[in-house]
Design a protein that fits this description.
Blueprint: H1 2-12, E1 17-18, E2 38-42, H2 47-60, E3 64-67, E4 85-89, E5 96-100, E6 105-109, H3 114-123, E7 126-127, H4 140-146, H5 153-156, H6 159-162, E8 163-169, E9 175-178, H7 191-195, E10 204-211, E11 213-214, E12 218-226, H8 229-243, E13 247-254, H9 255-264, E14 278-286, H10 290-307, E15 313-315, H11 319-339, E16 346-348, H12 354-368, E17 373-379, E18 384-390, H13 397-418, H14 437-440, H15 443-456
Parallel strand pairs: 2-4, 3-4
Antiparallel strand pairs: 1-2, 5-6, 6-10, 7-11, 8-9, 8-10, 12-14, 12-15, 13-14, 13-17, 16-18, 17-18
The structure holds flavin-adenine dinucleotide, (2R)-2-hydroxypentanedioic acid and zinc ion.
Residues 133, 333, 344, 378, 386, 388, 426 line the site of (2R)-2-hydroxypentanedioic acid.
Length: 470
């Protein structure tokens, strides 16, 4: 093993090859579900160094775990317990290479933090719409590798829809120059879409060209109470009809998830949460003016109240109120983590099936595990729920996970299948769901995935044990 360490030191310099205790910050996943042991953490500064590292690892038969901001939810970016895997941190690939206002694109390296991309676009009067609670630490490479979603998907799509081109280091250390700002290119198979969402199992993304959009002239945020999931879905239908492309966010939160924010982040002052079992957070982006936006949004809320699908509602008066409403929604993940270890389900369903899914699954869980606490929230606008589960109040978190996690997962995932959904809408498979996926994915699709993995990474050295076992 010292041979591979020396080879890596020759490529990046001794300072950028971390060993022993220095590896610790890279060895535990964000949710603190798993702590692994790395052979080393290597920190290249450019694409050529990444390619040389991959070649060295191939020569020595050592596997590679790519890591960006390590904010992933499914234990995909940390090493296993063997002490034999190299963690390849992309954080030092942090240059924005080019912003092209006329083409409305930005080309940046994999380690650029999402928030930096948003700021760079904004400084040119443009919008990079990807928006996640982890945006202060997650990276472009991680966003692409997980095909991250977030809160603007209802209008702008997932990371995949935002990407026009990639630069990738392949499993044998070649550099594929696929950076392109083209919106149309039909010259054969779409390699780009293979690497997006592959969670580092097919290649290392080193840079990408992403779409930018005009910045809306005005954004308004509303917070509304609804007394059922069915009414939240009806509000979505009304919002789509009235606001059309102006609808840029539509999130739902159940009362328990809001109570967790109220408990762990009292400074957020969650509005209206005691009044109803669910609240909806809705964002309108308008290209005309604030008056036009207010008129549209107030019209929508009046109609919804008239129909009885909204009970009470507020519209943020200014930017800081709007930001606070978004922070309430984004703080649910942290509030749940502060409450204790938990079970996450990152599911999607046809929007038309969500109310029935919730009625069915809420009842089944309450029946099977009395006292279980549901943290049901998420991106209702695109059919993605975070149908998370916290232990009953009187059961220790760790004990609950050991006893009930498999049973809870089976119950929820079976219901997802019954209602024609997906067991992962945005967080991916990682190692946490690698043995669950085969139970729910079409067998022909799985066989094709396995063949793609074997074709692109025949030695199986890129993030083994993640997404699909070969
Ligand atoms: P990492 O966690 O470092 O890696 C994720 C996966 O990608 C791993 O499998 C890793 O091996 C691989 N990888 C990383 N970089 C590369 C690369 N350059 N080339 C090849 N493979 C690579 N996710 C959502 O989709 N929507 C949300 O709304 C959302 N909100 C979140 C809120 C919070 C508070 C937190 C903590 C997480 C949230 N996430 C969300 C999950 C997470 O932030 C995203 O999955 C994000 O895209 C991961 O980026 P990262 O840089 O941290 O990647
Ligand atoms: C979000 O939408 C993230 O906030 C995290 O995808 C969801 O905490 C979760 O389960
Ligand atoms: Zn999410």
């Amino acid at each position: 093993m010292s041979e591979v360490l020396n080879a890596l030191r020759d490529i990046v310099g001794a300072k950028q090859v971390l060993i022993d205790a220095d590896c610790q910050p890279f060895e535990t996943d964000w949710r603190k579900r798993v702590t692994g042991k790395a052979l080393c953490v290597v920190r290249p500064a450019n694409t050529q160094e990444v390619a040389d590292i991959v070649k060295a690892c191939v020569r020595h038969g050592v596997s590679i775990v790519p890591q960006g901001g390590n904010t992933g939810m499914v234990v995909g970016a940390v090493p296993d317990a063997s002490g034999e895997q190299v963690v390849l941190s992309l954080q030092r690939l942090h240059r924005i290479r080019h912003l092209d206002p006329a083409n409305a694109t930005i080309t940046a390296e994999a380690g650029v933090i999402l928030q930096q991309l948003q700021v760079a676009a904004s400084e040119q009067g443009l919008l990079y719409p990807l928006s996640l609670g982890s945006q202060g630490s997650c990276t472009l490479g991680g966003n692409l590798s997980t095909n991250a979603g977030g809160t603007q998907v209802v209008r702008y799509g997932n990371t995949r829809e935002l990407c026009l081109g990639l630069e990738v280091v392949t499993a044998d250390g070649e550099i594929w120059q696929g950076l392109s700002g083209l919106r149309k290119d039909n010259t054969g198979y779409d390699l780009r879409d293979l690497f997006i969402g592959a969670e580092g199992t097919l290649g290392i993304i080193t840079a990408a060209t992403m779409k930018l959009f005009p910045k809306p002239r005005c954004q308004l945020t509303a917070w509304a109470t609804v007394d059922s999931v069915q009414h939240a879905v009806r509000l979505l239908e009304l919002a789509r009809a009235r606001l059309n492309a102006g609808l840029t966010g539509f999130e739902m939160m159940n009362q328990f998830s809001m109570s967790l924010v109220d408990k762990h982040f009292p400074e957020r002052r969650v509005p209206l949460w005691r009044e109803a079992p669910y609240c909806v957070l809705l964002e309108l982006s308008d290209m005309e003016s604030e008056d036009h936006a207010r008129h549209s949004l107030e019209g929508l809320l009046e109609e919804a109240m008239g129909e009885g699908c909204v009970g009470n509602a507020i519209v943020a008066e200014n930017l800081s109120q709007a930001q606070n409403l978004w922070l309430i929604r984004e703080n649910i993940t942290m509030a749940q983590a502060n409450e204790g270890l938990n079970i996450k389900h990152d599911i999607s369903l046809p929007v038309s099936a969500i109310a029935d899914f919730c009625a069915h699954t809420d009842a089944a869980l309450a029946r099977e595990i009395p006292g279980v606490r549901l943290v049901n929230f998420g991106h209702l606008g695109d059919g993605n729920l975070h149908y998370n589960v916290q232990c009953p109040a009187d059961v220790p978190h760790q004990v609950f996970l050991e006893r009930e996690e498999a049973r809870v997962n089976a119950l929820v995932n079976n219901a997802v299948k019954q209602f024609h959904g997906s067991i992962s809408a945005e967080h991916g498979i990682g190692s946490l769901k690698v043995d669950t996926l085969p139970k729910y994915k079409d067998p022909v699709a799985l066989a094709l995935m396995r063949r793609i993995k074997q074709a692109l990474d025949p030695k199986g050295l890129l993030n083994p044990g993640r997404v699909i076992r070969v």
